């Protein structure tokens, strides 16, 4: 299990490092896409390990544990925001915040509509379950047809 | 009593796990019993978290919500950038590569729109409230992008402290609204598939707002939204103090 946590940690650190480097390169005082790079690294690492047949239970449990802790961490994050300042900011904060929010929500709706219908999360899971079923019991499915 | 406080303070992170765990349990109970599961437990938990942060801020006069109470300082570590990023990266193991590829180009479009649209709104509102100089308009506009882009931009172009504070407050308020509002509008804006989650992440920005909002809507969408949102702040820090500032200065002069 520690192997999974270590793999996750290494990907995160390399991602942050590259993100800092990218920020420096662009002359920005921020980490540019560090988390995103780390995620891509982890996906790539997982695929590479899988093709070599070394992706075992422990590895997946080590990563899965932290993925599952994600929501509690978000709750802890919410509990330490400067909510008082946000509330006290007054009308300018309220109007700019809500205005930006509504505009962005509409843009999401617009882009989603314009780009046609996509498979929903429920449909994807249903399809994957069917495919897994067929992969496990090809014979029975062939008979049913 | 002193002894209890001493133990809780000495084990700050463990205390945070316990407190957040209790909040999660309570939220799941409320979700199941009070709303018949219609409102996600995680959404309720996030709102409780924000309410506690408000209470903590009033109580201590600090800026870190509940984490300013010495006993609950562990919340600051648990919900801080280090563990948050670590856990977000872990959710990548749930990303379906094929789905992510399909949203590639549209994700970039969303990122650009997500920087420019809030910036325009913020800058216009700022000028409507009398902040008509290019530096203040740019800083508050950048704050409407995210609460990190705001101060980074303000510092880079030499904005005054109250203006920087306003830009942070705007960004924090937006992030909070994204966390609370997303589950409510999810159906309306078609937020039920990986592609729209990636568009959403790019447009909304703030990793905290996006991840919180998506977590409260549908846990499975989080990694897709986070994947694009993570580039949002960097892009904002890149263009707000440079191209966008120059454009604003060209329009309003000085």
Task: Tell how many strands the DSSP assignment of chain A holds.
Answer: 0
> Largest protein interface?
A-B, 82 and 115 residues
Broad structural category of chain A: mainly alpha
Alpha plus pi helix count of chain B = 13
Mean pLDDT of chain A: 82
Strand content of chain A: under 5%
Secondary-structure element string of chain A? HHHHHHHH
Distance between the termini of chain B: 59 Å
List the total number of helices of chain A.
8
Proportion of residues in helical segments of chain A: over 70%
Number of strands of chain B: 0
Give a quick summary of the entry.
Chain A is mainly α. Chain A has eight helices and no strands. The mean pLDDT of chain A is 82.
Describe the structure.
The complex is a heterodimer of chains A (145) and B (254). Chain A has 145 residues and is mainly alpha-helical. Chain A has a domain at 1-80. The relative contact order of chain A is 0.08. In chain A, 81% of the residues lie in helices and 0% in strands. The mean pLDDT of chain A is 82. Chain B is 78% helix and 0% strand. Chain B is built from 13 helices and no strands. In chain B, helix 7 packs parallel to helix 11 (194-204), helix 8 packs parallel to helix 10 (161-185) and helix 8 (134-145) runs antiparallel to helix 13 (222-252). The mean pLDDT of chain B is 85. Chains A and B meet through helix 1, helix 2, helix 3, helix 4 and helix 5 of A and helix 2, helix 3, helix 4, helix 5 and helix 6 of B. Chain B: Keywords: Membrane, Transmembrane, Transmembrane helix. Chain B: Residues 5-252 form the Malonate/sodium symporter MadM subunit N-terminal domain. Chain B: It holds the Pfam family MadM. Chain B: InterPro entries: Mal/Na_symporter_MadM, Mal/Na_symporter_MadM_N.
């Amino acid at each position: 299990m520690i192997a999974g946590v270590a793999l996750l940690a290494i990907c995160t650190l390399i991602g942050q490092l590259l993100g800092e480097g990218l920020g420096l390169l662009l002359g920005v005082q921020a980490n540019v896409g560090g988390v995103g790079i780390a995620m891509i690294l982890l996906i790539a690492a997982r695929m590479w390990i899988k093709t070599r047949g070394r992706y075992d239970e422990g590895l997946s449990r080590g990563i899965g544990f932290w993925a599952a802790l994600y929501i509690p961490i978000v709750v802890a994050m919410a509990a330490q925001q400067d909510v008082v300042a946000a509330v006290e900011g007054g009308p300018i904060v309220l109007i700019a915040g809500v205005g930006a929010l509504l505009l962005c929500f509409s843009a999401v709706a617009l882009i989603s509509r314009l780009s046609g219908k996509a498979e929903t999360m429920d449909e994807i899971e249903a399809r994957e379950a069917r495919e897994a079923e067929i992969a496990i019991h090809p014979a029975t499915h062939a008979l049913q047809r | 009593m002193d002894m209890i406080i001493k133990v809780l303070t000495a084990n700050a992170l463990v205390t945070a796990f316990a407190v957040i765990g209790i909040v999660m349990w309570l939220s799941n109970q409320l979700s199941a019993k009070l709303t018949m599961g219609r409102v996600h437990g995680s959404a309720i938990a996030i709102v409780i978290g924000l309410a506690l942060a408000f209470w903590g801020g009033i109580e201590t006069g600090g800026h870190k919500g509940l984490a300013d109470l010495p006993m609950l300082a562990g919340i600051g570590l648990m919900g801080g950038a280090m563990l948050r990023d670590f856990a977000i990266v872990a959710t990548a193991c749930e990303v379906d590569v094929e789905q992510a590829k399909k949203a590639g180009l549209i994700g970039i479009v969303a990122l650009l729109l997500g920087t420019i649209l809030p910036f325009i709104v913020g800058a216009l509102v700022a000028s409507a409230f009398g902040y008509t100089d290019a530096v203040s308009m740019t800083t508050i506009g950048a704050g409407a992008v995210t609460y990190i882009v705001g101060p980074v931009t303000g510092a880079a172009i030499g904005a005054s402290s109250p203006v920087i504070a306003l830009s942070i407050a705007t960004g924090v308020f937006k992030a909070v609204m994204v966390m609370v509002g997303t589950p409510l509008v999810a159906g309306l804006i078609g937020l039920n598939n990986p592609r729209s989650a990636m568009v959403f992440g790019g447009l909304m920005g703030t990793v905290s707002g996006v991840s919180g909002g998506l977590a409260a809507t549908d846990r499975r969408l989080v990694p897709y939204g986070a994947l694009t949102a993570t580039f949002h702040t960097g892009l904002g820090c890149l263009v707000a103090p440079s191209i966008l500032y120059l454009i604003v200065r060209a329009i309003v002069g000085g």
